[in-house]
Design goal:
The protein is mainly α and 181 residues long. The protein folds into two domains: 2-78, RNA polymerase sigma factor, region 2, helix turn helix motif (Rna Polymerase Sigma Factor, Chain: A); 93-168, Winged helix-like DNA-binding domain superfamily/Winged helix DNA-binding domain (Arc Repressor Mutant, subunit A). It is built from nine helices and no strands. Helix 1 (2-24) runs antiparallel to helix 2 (27-43), helix 2 (27-43) packs across helix 3 and helix 6 (115-126) crosses helix 8. It is rod-shaped.
Length: 181
């Protein structure tokens, strides 16, 4: 008796699958419902009454399983596939916070730079201009642009690493007293 029911169930699978897809509206969920229906039918084959329609019995099992899922969905809420949730998720919160903190730290360190160094950091490091373009915009020789940027970068690095700020180096020509007296 059980072998006959199993072979009839196999014959019924294409129709049961169409029914399940119609219920669920999704091919994958329909296939899952068919599988669950077959498992339930085989585990309760003793409840099948010989002489009745097997397809009606199987459709009723599928329908009841689907209705149970819908009731559970109302109670539990919508279930989201993990892969779909990863695609919906925004950027990593930790990365965003760390980036904002780093940006705030750089902004605070830049506030200590002299105006001419801040301007060059903005033009070269932020806007991506070349040294020559920055020199043309500021009307400064390219060598001066390079040295100011080097000092600005050293100062920013020191401040961001928590080292005490460096004292400006006095120029040799500025420290010599004039002997015009």
């Amino acid at each position: 008796m059980t072998d006959e029911i199993r072979s009839r169930m196999v014959e019924l699978l294409p129709r049961l699958r169409r029914f399940a897809v119609a219920l669920t509206g999704d091919l994958d969920q329909g296939d899952d419902l068919v599988q669950e229906t077959c498992v339930r039918a085989l585990s309760r084959v003793d409840q099948y009454q010989p002489g009745t329609r097997l397809d009606s019995w199987m459709y009723r099992i599928a329908q009841n399983l689907w209705l149970d899922r819908m009731r559970a969905k109302k109670v539990r809420g919508v279930q989201v596939d993990v892969e779909a949730a990863e695609a919906l998720a925004g950027p990593n919160g930790r990365t965003v916070v760390e980036s904002r903190l780093a940006l705030d730290a750089v902004g605070a360190a830049m506030a200590f730079l002299p105006e001419e160094q801040r301007v060059l950091i903005g033009l070269v490091c932020i806007d991506g201009l070349s040294y020559k373009e920055a020199a043309d915009i500021t009307g400064t020789p390219i060598g001066t642009v390079m040295s100011r940027l080097a000092r600005a970068r050293r100062e920013l690095h020191a401040r961001l690493e928590g080292h005490p700020p460096r004292e400006p180096v006095a120029r040799a020509s500025a420290s010599k007293p004039r002997s015009d007296a």
